[in-house]
Structures are given as C-alpha cells and as structure tokens.
Design goal:
Blueprint (H helix, E strand, L loop, with lengths): L16 H7 L1 H15 L6 E5 L5 H10 L3 E6 L2 H10 L5 E5 L12 E7 L8 H11 E12 L9 H9 L15 H10 L3 E14 L2 H10 L11 H14 L8 E13 L4
Parallel strand pairs: 1-2, 1-4, 2-3, 4-5
Antiparallel strand pairs: 5-7, 6-7
Length: about 270
C-alpha cells in the first residue's frame, strides 16, 4: 500500500481519551498482552512507556510485570489527562512529552517500549536513539506497530472505502518503519543485541454494525464522520456492510496484525 499524504489534511491526533477507548484501546490491550508476554521481562523493573495514549497499555504493563516504576509520556495533554483518570498507582508517572526528545536522564530504565507508536514518530531513527539513550546497558528496547503496508491495521477496510468514495485518508508519517526489514535494520544500526521479531495477530468482535461504525468511524481519528456528507455517509455504510463478515447474530469479527521487535542495549 502506498499513499501520498495531502498537505492540506490534518495529521493524525488522538486528543479524546473516550473516543480513543472505543476506537483503539481494545486492540491495544489484545496486541499489548501478546507483546508483553513475548518480552519476558522480570518483575520489579523500571520502564519507559513512550506514547502511552490514554494508558491502556500502561495499565497492562502495570498488571503483568509489577514494575518498580513506569514513566509514561504522550504528546497529547488530553490523553495524559485520560490516563491519569484511569491509573492511580503511585509507581506510575504520567507526563506530556516528545518521543524524539525524552525528558529522562541517560540510562535510567531497564526497558523502553513504544506500543503502536513508532510509525507516528516523524523521525523514527531519532525516536529509537532516544529509547536507547534512556535505557541502561543490557536493558530492553522494544516496539510494535500495526503492519501498515500489508493491511494489518484494524481500520484498513475503513480507509479502503474512504478512498472509493473519493475521500482522502490521513496516515501516520512513517509507514515504512512498520516493515520487519526496516525494523531489523534500524535496531541493528544502533548496535542492539539479541534482536528478535514477531508477528502479533489479534481480533476484535463488534456486537453489530452500529457498534463497528461508532468505534471505527465516529470515534476514529482525523474527523472522518464529521467531514462526510449525508450521501457519502450512507454510501460508506453500504459499502462497509457489504464487506464486513457478520455472523448470524450480526456480530462482526475483524483481525489485525502487528510487527514487533525487541533487542538489548550493549553492556559496557
């Protein structure tokens, strides 16, 4: 999939914690659980959660690996506010921050992770460099992103239908970094050791088409529903309903898959 981004379009931003919860948080929890299982880290470590959104992944990390601390950042003040409403654990520090200029000291964390974030970073190389900088020697640096170029992102069908009705699609700025080859080359460039990759395959079942429409279109980023005319909205619904696999009860199950990578910072 190749896409030319139009300069007149907004960038993708997640500023509504409740909308993000409907749109992506269930997917984040499913893929995040697989990702954290795969990392196989010890209990009681210090973690950096970069691009934490509304805290859905942070919450998983807290429950699964009982960390000593999590420093979680996101560029959206609204998302951080939502995360603070979700998480009250004292070992979690939530703040607004930039993935390309992390507000943390060198070698502070045992593990630095980006969950569904790296392809949103305008300069992924700089983002990985910052992850590496704040990680202790021997520590873990890991990421997973939707496999954008092979159709693995959950809203892929929504994007396909938008194009068919003549609507532009706003995509993350760094799609290429979702490829396994690109990820492995980036981790190797920074001298990370014991590099491994894995595909994470997940699914989500919506109660019916209305549930799907609310979650994937109305609650999606970039104001999709707001910019459609009544005629375009009706046509989009018709096309989506014709292609979505509904069960006898009307339930709709959609699959997504992500590319994950992990490696260890060289010891001194």
């Amino acid at each position: 999939m190749q896409e030319v981004l139009m300069s007149s379009l907004p960038t993708i931003r997640f500023n509504d914690g409740s909308a993000y919860e409907r749109f992506m948080a269930p997917w984040s929890r499913s893929a995040g659980t697989l990702f954290l299982d795969w990392l196989q880290q010890r209990q009681g470590l210090d973690w950096a959660d970069i691009g934490c959104g509304n805290g859905a992944f942070t919450e998983l990390l807290l429950a699964q690996w009982s960390p000593a601390s999590i420093c979680a950042i996101d560029p959206s003040e609204e998302q951080i506010a939502a995360a603070r409403r979700r998480i009250s654990a004292e070992q979690v520090e939530l703040s607004v921050g930039d993935a390309m200029a992390l507000p943390f000291a060198d070698a502070r964390f045992d593990a630095a992770v980006m969950a569904l974030v790296l392809f949103f970073v305008p300069d992924p190389k700089k983002g990985v460099a910052e992850m590496l900088r704040v990680t202790k020697p021997g520590g873990m640096v890991a990421s997973y992103t939707w496999d954008m170029l092979r159709g693995g992102t959950p809203p892929q069908l929504v994007w396909d239908v938008l194009r068919e009705i003549g609507q532009p699609v706003v995509l993350p700025p760094s799609l290429e970094v979702s490829r396994f080859d690109a990820l492995k080359a980036l981790w190797a460039e920074f001298g990370l050791r014991d590099i491994e990759t894995r595909e994470l395959v997940v699914e989500r079942t919506y109660a019916d088409f209305d549930d799907y429409w609310l979650s994937m279109v109305v609650s999606g980023p970039s104001g999709i529903a707001e910019r459609l005319s009544d005629a375009e909205s009706a046509e989009m619904k018709r096309l989506l309903q014709a292609r979505l696999p509904a069960s006898a009860s009307g339930a709709i199950t959609v699959h997504g898959w992500a590319t994950a990578i992990k490696g260890r910072k060289a010891s001194r």
